[in-house]
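Researcher: Quick one. two chains, 522 residues in total.
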Amino acid sequence: MASAAKRLEAVPGIPAPQIAFDGVTLVLGGKTIIENLSLGVRPGEFLCIVGASGCGKTTALRLAAGLYQPTSGKVNFDGQPMRAPRREIAIVFQDYGKALLPWRTAAGNVSLALEAGGMPSAERPARIEELLRTVGLPGHAGKYPSEMSGGMQQRLQIARCLAQEPKTLLMDEPFGALDAMTRQGLQDEVLSLVAASGATVIFVTHDLDEAIYLGDRVIGLLPHPGRIGIELSVNLPRPRDQLSTREHPEFLRLRRQLFDFVKATEQ
Amino acid sequence: MNRAALLWRVASFAVAAGFIALWQLIANLKLVSPVFLPGPDRAWASLVRGFSSGDLWSKLAGTLEHMAYGWLAASIAGIAIGAIIGSSRTMRTYVAPSLEFLRPLPVSAIIPVAIAMLGLTQAMALFVIAFGAIWPIMLATVHGFGAVEPRLYEVARSLQMSRLAVIFKIALPSASPDILAGMRLSLTVALILSVVCEILAGLDGLGHWVLLSARAFRSADLFAGVILLGITGYVTSVAMSLAEHKLLAWQAAQR
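Model:
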């Protein structure tokens, strides 16, 4: 308890973490999925979590979302314990096809978040149009998700998340199911959206290049049970660029380090 | 409509016309006594006579009324109860076996019970029709509510939606294809039970008309009633399909 209190104390010069894991352990069905995970995410930080499949990265994200409660330890948001999901934390799921309402149009899907936030119906259309434009879907308001490509559906899900006006955006392998070109385009769009909104991001991916390209910090998890294996600060200039950033010596150095880590965990 | 579809429609009408012609032929040749089997010409004449005298209108209205009230009551109760059972896994586990026991129970078996309790009244008919028609709707709703994509519930949680909003904005629309399919099945059940109740309880309607015509050996009137019941079943089912098509336009987009 003493250490927890100390960790959450405001230190001058260093902003208090927006999301703080403190000795978090999660046991599901008798299996320890995550063990003693401590982690702080600063406001406005872009944190990427990587690791082999089954290392608990999605679980960590669900803990941050409040969809799971830790077996022991604490997850705090803005200094308050997370007991349930909150509207200021938005989640972008990997399976956009399941996370969108198939019976609502693009506009209707964005509207769902606005309705939940209590926005009067007269104000919604303008906001919906603005949000759809932000994610690059102007003119698609009347389409059903099934009439849209995978990339467009994921943009739509991001638009709905932005409609929540989140302080934190949790992204669970959001581009895992998309082709390479769409993926790169969306990476850059997410970076500029996040830069514009100032939201904190936790981004789970198994694509190591993606993690370095996007993040301020990259955490690699070790499996069985999930725990932190490596932590890298990414000091690459922003705005990032698909060509020059990926050719940057620092990028290549981090990439090497991360690949070596993952290779070592696989043995 | 494209050419092939048009051709199919023409063919199906030709088949129907063929059956009517065959019926006329059998009646004309008196293969069956005219006392029991009128030709389509006599049945048609009886229909026209019944409608112009106003008798058939009131009978038809009576049957439609029984059917509609019973079906609507079954729909409202079936969706409500189905939603309560279907939205909770515990409820599904506990209640499902009882439902499975009650479901195959022939509704005709509860008619004597209903008559004993409610007498030969409209209330009895309403109860019996609703009781019979509720099963397809309720079971479809339970299934539909149980099959809602769990991811959508997580979306709802992260949006902190109220329980009521989750039901009306997520569970109900998600279950709507199942529910509407159940309602379509129930429509037929409601028509059958309307006729049965009219026959048993002597309530005003086509069932009663058919029964009286048969007893009086007015075979043309009997057939007129049967034809009208067939048309009623067909038209209500087509109307239901149209409503389904309109309400589930988003599913058409999916295909």
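The interface with chain A takes residues 149, 151-152, 154-155, 157-161, 165, 169-170, 173-174, 176, 250-251, 253-254 of chain B (CB under 8 Å).
Researcher: Thanks, that's what I needed.
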